[in-house]
Amino acid sequence: MLAVPTPALVYDLDNALRSVGRMLEDVSLVSGARLNVALKSCHTPSVLRHLADAGLGADCASVREVDLAVSVGFHEVSATGPSFSDEGALDRLSETGIVVDATSIDQLELIGAIQPGSNVGLRLRLTIPEALDTANSFGANSRFGVVATDPAVHAVLARHQLHVTRLHLHTGQMSPRLFLWELRYTLTIAESLSGVELIDFGGGFYDFYADRAKARRALQTADELLGQWRERTGRPMAIRFEPGAAVLGPHGYLVTTVQSIEPAHPVYDAEVVQVDTSAWNYAPWHLPVAVPLDELGRQPRAPRLISGNTLYENDFFGMTGRSARPLIDMASVSVGERLVLTNAGAYTMTNRRDFNLLGNLREYLVVDDTLHPVDTEMSATP
Asked: What's residue 381's pLDDT?
């Protein structure tokens, strides 16, 4: 990373694939379970090709994401999102054999009007029990999904003779306990919908993997619950997970150069370190660790503000929707030094803006311990 011109985004694919391997090992504890990547987290074909070759599928939120997923070689593609709300989008999904998981009653009505008698999925909105709800989860407050018991949903299904084959939910960060509650809930719903053969639990693997041993125990329990359900109903049932941030986030590094330092801002009462890229343009959701590149063990550390290079007042790294400007614990640096900002492997490029016309980041992959520019990086091999 010492050689890359800044600003640059470096994906450590070697370690990302090791993490994916552990996730696949754990997911295999559940019969009929697979891992898909939420494509909204990354649109870089060179990265996605490696994930497809590793055996992952893809979940898509737009027609262009579907086209990208197909072009890089994902063998399983699912689709959910409000953008699938016109005839052209639905026809494209039908051409590729992808069942859309409807996010609203109006979208479900449109699917029925255009494709009566077809298969469809339902994205569910859940009321999470208070004991399992957190600030990082979305239940009844989600803007996506339908309520499984809503008579209006069933009226649309009956009027257009739609066959529900999938249930889909995403409740933000998901603890092992919340996952098991969601599994029991959706299996109950599935029992009343005879065509359902797959349940997609979305992502939220940061919280799910806070303790891997607990995650594995939950997956083993899930396998038992699914086995009991299959035996009782005589029906097949598969499950999917679709993490995005947990697959790539920890393995992406934003490499940037310090451009100016204000030692003691008169209002913030902190040192402000300005770098040559922008949190506003690339990292609105990231809370990074900041490390000087040339001296990784440098001490002492102190809370500092890291600002971007746009003419936008709140261009600070680590904002993540906060109103207060976030202090990031880091060692002192000088103008011209390089910083590495962690946790940038997911959503960095898919969230990008071009405020002030500053242009794109350069992207690089580390594959087999070798750094490759994305535009010349060799395609992944099976």
From this structure: 40
Q: Rounded distance, CA 380 to CA 382, Å? A: 7
Per-residue burial over 308-346, b if 16 or more Cβ lie within 10 Å, else e, is: bbbebeebbbbbeeeeebbbbebbbbeeebbbbbbbbbb
- Per residue in 299-308, pLDDT tens? 788 999 999 9
- Cβ atoms of 46 and 248 within 8 Å: the answer is no
Cα–Cα separations (whole angstroms), residue 267 to 258, 262, 309, 332: 21, 12, 19, 20
Which tens digits make up the pLDDT trace of 126-156?
999 999 998 888 998 999 999 999 999 999 9
Scanning the structure block, which residue is given the tokens 């679709």? 242
CA distance 53 to 381: 7
- Between the alpha carbon of residue 212 and those of residues 26, 209, 216, 226, 243, the distances in Å are 9, 5, 6, 21, 15
CA dihedral 60, 63, 69, 73 (to 10 degrees): 140
Can you point out the beta strands (E) in the chain? 8-12, 33-38, 57-60, 77-80, 100-102, 119-123, 163-168, 198-200, 238-241, 252-262, 272-275, 290-292, 301-307, 328-331, 338-341, 362-367, 370-373
Angstrom distance (rounded) from CA 278 to CA 275? 8
Q: Which of 21, 51, 135, 7 is nearest to 346 (CA)?
A: 51
To which H or E segment does residue 227 belong?
Answer: helix 212-233
Total length of the chain = 382
Bridge partners of 238, per DSSP, are: 198
> For residue 3, is pLDDT > 80?
no
Distance of CA 58 to the CA centre of its chain: 11
**pLDDT single digits (tens) 227-248:** 999 999 999 999 999 999 999 9
